[in-house]
Every structure is written in C-alpha cells, then in structure tokens.
Amino acid sequence: MREVSTEQITTAVKKMALEAAYELGDDVRAALNRGLDRETSPTGRDVINQLLENADIAKEGEFPMCQDTGLAVVFVELGQDVHIVGGDVNEAIQDGVRQGYEEGYLRKSVCHPFTRQNTGDNTPAILHFRIVPGDGIKITLAGKGGGSENMSRVMMLKPSDGKEGIKDYVVQRVKEAGPNPCPPIVVGVGIGGTFEKAALLAKEALLRPLGEANKDPELAEMESELLDRINKLGIGPAGLGGRTTALAVNVEMMPCHIASLPVAVNINCHAHRHKETAI
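Given the sequence above, the corresponding structure tokens read:
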C-alpha cells in the first residue's frame, strides 16, 4: 500500500489550476494551426492568428488566456492500492483550486444559484472519482468556461433515431449554438449509458488530445464526418464566418437501456483548458 499525502494533492491541483489558465496545450495549438492552413476567410484567418498570439502572450507573461478562467472540473483516477494520509482528499483538491485561483489572480466564477452571491474562491470545484488498479493517482483539471457550457445539452433520443439521428442532433446543436461558445470550438459527444452518464462521457471526451481519433473505427469515422459537417456550417472563428467552426469532435460511447438512446453534447471554447498530472 503506497501512501500519498493530501499536501501533495493540494500542491498538484494548485499548479494545474495556474497552468491550465496560462498555457494552451500543444494539441490545441496544433489544431489551431491546422485550422489556419485550411481557412479561406481573411477574417477567420485573422481571428485564428490573434488566438495564437494571445496564447503566446498568456504563456510568456503568465496571464489568463481568457478572462473567464472557468469552473474547475477535476477528474481523479485513484489507484486502489493508494492510502491517502493527512486529511480529506476531497478537501485537499478544493484547497488546491482555492489556492491556485487566489494566487494566480484568476477570476472567481462560482456563485449561489439563487442569490448569485459569489463564493469568493472559485470553489466548490466539481469532482469526479474513478477507482482504478495500481498505486498511483492521476488528476486532470479542466477550467470550464460558462459560455461554452451554456451551449451544452443532453437529449434522450428515441432508439429508432439511430446513428443518423445522433449525428443530425449533434450538428443541429452546434448550429443553434452559433457564435455563443466562442468558436473555433471542441465538441465532446457522449452516447449511451443513462441521462447523467451521457453528460459525463461527453465531458470526458473533451479531455482526449485533439487529433487523436477514437480507437473504435466506427466512432472514429463518426468523429471525422461530424467535424466535416460542422465546419461546413460556415459559423467560423468568432462566429464571423469561415471553414473553422470546430477544431475537433471527440465521441465516447457505452451501452444503454433498450428503451432509450441518451446523447450529450458538451462544447468547449477555443481556450480548451485542461492539465493532468500523476502522483
């Protein structure tokens, strides 16, 4: 049994909260460059160039790449042979988020749903735990902005809608979202499970590196087709028109009940922020 202290966890989460806000991932930067290569709209090309320049400035100066530094969503893969010592693992993660957002002067975006009173420290973060084999811990932190999250949906389709119905729904959802989620976007799609599991699958799909297709050939083909159809919508960078509405579509799927076909679409903006670490 390997021991891991809550102090180690807090330090790791704090570091990820800062890095996620300041540093655009290499996969996202590469996807933006691919979008620049295929973009024919002068305005669209100008927007993508500004996004790349903004990412450079943010990393060099350690400034947030977007003023909406997001609600922290933390995924934890906890090895079954790990013993957490020194306190509550949940509170250790919340402390890391709290310290990162405070010390980095990151915007506090969490409030009471009714009064809208700000909690003042960007907590509580949203935590998802998974028990896995081994004696390690993998933590992934995503800073999820409000604009893109607001454009996300869960839909209980009819089983008879099938694969074509799923694809039509995803494209329609992006079309309805239009410029609101700050394109070029990343689209996470969750298929199957239950109402809440489909939503979680869609959010987890956003964590897969951009440009890395699903290992299931059928889903990889669906991802490619959806990306093509979405980019033909003409919404374009910043919603100003062009061929680069989405940088990637990532799909995850699991079995569901015979009477249902849950589908979730979780959209992320161009500031596709997430960092991971292993302890």
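The chain has two domains: 2-22+65-144, 147-272. Try to locate this feature in the token string yourself.
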